[in-house]
Design a protein that fits this description.
Layout lengths: L9 H4 L2 H15 L2 H24 L7 H34 L12 H32 L4
Helix pairs in contact: 2-3, 2-4, 2-5, 3-5, 4-5
Length: about 140
């Protein structure tokens, strides 16, 4: 009697880390600098801690669909954070050396960059734990084991 595998819930498929990275970048770009400067620690806490907890729930699930989406969402996270860092470096370069051509760039304060780095470290830790789950799954299928 064959049983059909249950579909994973949307909770497991939702990219919590990527969503918090995008929210942090969007909030920094759209909110008033004075307000964001005063409340950055609360915003970072509200975005980082739930993302870390909710991403950590995915560790025990090792279906290929969840793992594949985790890798794709982690790569997208690195892409968006890389673009934000590149734009911040462009702005810093324009301010420091005054390149003759004005280039539009975003201003990311140090605390936003720090929060983005913490979120990326969470993504890296999740990728390594996922690799460990894949190894465990392959070891169970090994006939020599």
């Amino acid at each position: 009697m064959a049983t059909t595998p249950a579909k994973p819930s949307t909770f497991l498929l939702f990219p919590w880390g990527l969503a918090s990275i995008l929210l942090l970048i969007i909030l920094n770009l759209t909110l008033n600098d004075a307000w964001f400067n005063k409340n950055w620690s609360w915003i970072a806490l509200v975005l980082i801690i739930p993302a870390a907890i909710l991403e950590n729930f995915k560790v025990g699930y090792s279906t290929m669909r969840i793992m594949f989406l985790k890798v794709v969402f982690s790569l997208l996270s690195f892409l968006f954070v890389g673009m934000a860092f590149g734009s911040a470096l462009t702005n810093w370069y324009n301010i420091k050396w005054g390149a003759g051509v004005p280039i539009k760039a975003t201003t990311l304060p140090w605390y936003v960059l720090l929060a983005l780095c913490v979120l990326l470290l969470i993504q890296v830790a999740q990728l390594f734990s996922m690799l460990k789950a894949v190894k465990r799954e392959f070891m169970q299928m090994d006939p020599d084991n």
